[in-house]
Amino acid sequence: MKKALASLLRGRSAVIGLPYLWLLVFFLAPxxxxxxxxxxxxxxxxxxDIVAIKDGVATLTLKFSNYVFLTSDPLYYSxxxxxxKYAAWTTLLCLAIGYPFAYFMARARxxxxxxxxxxxxxxFWTSFLLRVYAWKGLLTTDGWVADxxxxxxxxxxxxxxxxxxxxxxxxNTPFSLVLGMTYTYLPFMILPLYGNLSKMDLRLLExxxxxxxxxxxxxxTVTVPLSKAGIIAGSMLVFxxxxxxxxxxxxxxxxxxxxxxSVVWTEFFSNNDWPLASSLAVSMILLILVPxxxxxxxxxxxxxxxx
Length: 307
Prior knowledge:
Number of helices: 14
Mean pLDDT: 83
Distance between the termini: 31 Å
Strand content: under 5%
Oligomer: single chain
């Protein structure tokens, strides 16, 4: 009995320990390197070491002025707020498009679901960069998507909504940026929702109908609350990478769509200021992860209270 219990504990420790080891090696270690660079002094070629040993005396030098500078220059927090805005719009659009599609997939015939799932995953078989470049060709002048939008007069609606600055000009605008990010991250919203909706007990909907609820009322009072975990998971999978996105804003965005990823790249490679770029990246990570951790904590406490 003791041997079986010890074997079970070892197996459980291995199952729990492997993901923690993965996070330690591939997330925490690079993050600590980034923190180290952010409090260093930039040398001629590379940042100086924060610990220097001279004549047998170890000296620790930490430079926090980069973090102070981030709060004093409006460029950095305006670019961060811009990143939050475009990430939020992308998340809402992915949810509005992805939820009906995931719902249809979950309610489709079992024989049809693998084909629908493959269609969602099919874009991953093509290079991410090629897919973004494809949108660049589709939205430029004489691109067939641009011709359809202009032909239907939708560019006037986009102009009225402030998504483009000139009628007929769709590229390098907030519209092209949000469109590219929505297309790219839509599968990350659909897959968690499909996984959640496909496991839902349909007898609950039957019970709601027996109690006199209309299909619409049953959807909002039964289906949506039960799919909350999928909505949260999909939203996090879309929102978090969108905040730090660099490639799509660089290819499809313009000067008016400045995001934090572009600012980090500029500080690293154009200004050669590694400590400032690292402090900006660390701040961005903390501003995302700390509220997320607090949210997960309160969600876990709420689930425990319901039990």
